[in-house]
Amino acid sequence: MSVQTEQQYNEIIFECKEIFEKKTKDYGTAWRVLRLPSVTDQIFIKARRIRSMQMKRDNKVGEDIQGEFMGIINYCIIAIIQMQLPDSEKMEIPFITLGPMYDKVANDAMNLLTAKNHDYDEAWRAMRVHSMTDIIMMKLMRVKQIEDNAGKTLISEGVDANYQDIMNYAVFCLIKLKGE
Questions:
Q1: CA–CA separation, 71 and 19 (whole Å)
Q2: What confidence tens digit (pLDDT) does each residue in 114-138 have?
């Protein structure tokens, strides 16, 4: 991965983590009540709204596409954290505990991105944001199918790898929207 990509990635994740921290202070970890398919649906809603705004070229709510991509990143991190926490784990988790968990998930996703970027030679830089939005939607449909199949796959990667890919595509979109 190029130094530029790593720096841009880290800047996006830093912004997302700041939002995550502030929302944790505002709401606590209310998201802990969500089952994994509900988190997937939250990501789906955000991706669907982005796609709708891209197609209609209109936004009546006022929140921008960048904020929605950041929400996708944070919900992907929430999903992976939820997968790692046992059901018996307490509902409220202080940010001092959550912060390192957030960082580990983000670092794991960046490691995946580094490997894929090497193999694909940063092909995402030549892609359009709306194409990456479509790929996010496709990966969400895959996750929903895997969830409907009780997490079982015959040959495909699991839900966590799809969340990482979704997260990384959202980062790519934000980099492109910021003008690279």
A1: 9
A2: 988 888 888 999 999 999 999 999 9
Q: What is the DSSP string of 47-110?
A: HHHHHHHHHH---SS---HHHHHHHHHHHHHHHHHHHHS-TTS-S---HHHHHHHHHHHHHHHH
- CA distance linking residue 82 with residue 123, whole number of Å: 31
Q: How is residue 142 written in tokens? A: 């895959």
> How large is the C-alpha radius of gyration of the chain?
16
Tokens of 48: 């669907």
Handedness of CA 52, 16, 136, 133 (dihedral sign): positive
Band (pLDDT 50/70/90 cuts) for residue 99 is very high
Structure tokens at 81: 């954290």
Note the pLDDT tens digit of each residue in 22-65: 999 999 999 999 999 999 999 999 999 999 999 987 776 667 89
DSSP 108-131: HHHHHHHHHHHHHTTGGGGS-HHH
**Two tokens, residue 19:** 């939002």
Tokens, residue 171: 């980062």
Question: What percent of the chain is modeled with pLDDT above 70?
Answer: 97
- Mean pLDDT computed over 151-180: 91
Q: Could you tell me the CA-to-CA distances from 133 to 17, 60, 74, 154 in Å, in that order? A: 21, 20, 16, 26
